[in-house]
Prior knowledge:
By secondary structure, this protein is an alpha+beta fold. It has one domain (about 1-95). The chain is built from three helices and seven strands, in the order αββαβββαββ. The chain has helices spanning about 1-5, 40-55, 85-95; strands at about 20-25, 30, 60, 65-70, 75-85, 100-105, 105. It has a seven-stranded antiparallel β-sheet with strand order 3-5-4-1-2-6-7. It is globular. The model has no long low-confidence stretch (mean pLDDT about 90).
Amino acid sequence: MELMSKLGLPELHPDAVALSAFREEDGQGIAYTVAVPTRGHDRIVALVWRAASTGKIGRAGESEYATLELVNAEGDTVQDYAIPTARAFRWWYTLLGLRVDTKDGQPSYA
């Protein structure tokens, strides 16, 4: 999809079937649950393109509030994008129904 490169971002990894997020707060790493869109890769393409065109993601490694992780069918992260602001993170959090999975590697219910 040439649209991502027009926005200055790498093309979406072809194995991406789910999304998750990670961020740090008060020195603790916070991992979020994995969201699997019902239309799989096609829906991820649409969401990522929409987010890129509205400034809700950027190139990985740029100034970021959090990281959007693209996950393959085996549960491995295959690509990252930067989530630049808390507002952008809240958009993803709400859209995907994310919840805290672990804090510093410990289950959130511990």
